[in-house]
Amino acid sequence: MKKIILTGDRPSGALHLGHYVGSLKNRVQMQNEFQTYIIIANLQAMTDYFDRPEQIRENINSLVKDYIACGIDPNVSTIFVQSKVKALPIMTMYFMNLVSLARVRRNPTVKEELERKEFKNNVNCGFVCYPISQAADILAFDADIVPVGKDQKPMIEQTNEIVDSFNFLYKDDVFKKCKAVFGQTAKLMGIDGKAKASKSLGNAISLSDTEEILKQKVFSMYTDPMHLKVQDPGRVEGNMVFHYLDAFYDEVKTRELREHYEKGGLGDMVLKKLLFDVLQEFLEPIRQKRKNVTQDDIDGILFQGNKRANEKADSVLERMERSMKFD
Ligand code: TRP
After folding, report:
1. How far is the CA of 134 from the centre of ligand 1 (A)?
2. Are 149 and 125 in contact (CB under 8 A)?
3. 263 alpha carbon to ligand 1 midpoint, in Å?
4. Residue 149 in contact with residue 23, Cβ under 8 Å?
5. How many angstroms separate the CA atoms of 211 and 45, rounded?
6. How high does pLDDT run on average in the chain?
7. What pLDDT score does 122 carry?
8. Is the dihedral angle over the CA atoms 255, 203, 79, 152 positive or is it negative?
9. What pLDDT was estimated at residue 185?
10. With a cut of 70, which residues of the chain have pLDDT below it?
11. Which of 138, 148, 198, 200 to mutate to test the pocket of ligand 1 (most atoms within 8 A of CB)?
12. Whether the model pTM is above 0.90
């Protein structure tokens, strides 16, 4: 039997090149080798955007388009919406009793988000408990492997602690532990060179950016501020044009350009024009595919995906409740 992968995203905005190199590319490569489930975590997004459900709804459509445009095959991978799988909140309720409040507050990702959001004493219960709901996302599908970004490591640890507690309390072997797999590629930086590419910081190139926006972003990329004249030697460390060429352009040619730039005689404009052409060539087919995905396609993909996801999650919930004598 094929091993099971569960992975997913919050529908909180357009996917960008950082998502592509960090996880989408992996998912496309792995989808034929493993049984893949991709969760669109709208319940999790609601812990932040509870006042803007219509925005989440729009983002769900856009996420499906990005997936398809990048090569996720909905006949091979199961793409589904979290709130459409009713076994998930039930499992979450059972798991909530196995995790102390102190433990969820200690979760480094939650802690960091709490500080960043300045929730103070107004933090909602949904927010602090989302790692438990994420454990349900993973365990409802018997996932062996969870490909995620490094920031999701605490969620996987929490999931495996729940596995231990549950099996110990009710019955051995109801759940198995899962393994996190982190993307091979180092984090893609934003065009400002200050932080990793992120939608909320506005420093990312989206998969859905038009040619015009792509051009603006590439030509405003952070390079070497001391490289004033073409003939001057330039610095490639921290230079975003080289960072992106490393991720998207031929390795040998990039090395030659790097040497030329460091020696002097290679201008930023020439490099930016090259990077623009490289990214334009990469993004144009994605844009075209994206444009061809209709609302009917999206509805059909999610209808099928939700159906397959419910079949699996219902069977796991049944197994779980049997072990608790609630069958
Ligand atoms: N927390 C993930 C994110 O912010 C999204 C997510 C929800 C997820 N449930 C998941 C990822 C289960 C992997 C497995 O991107």
Report:
1. 6
2. no
3. 45
4. yes
5. 29
6. 94
7. 79
8. positive
9. 61
10. 118-120, 184-186
11. 148
12. yes
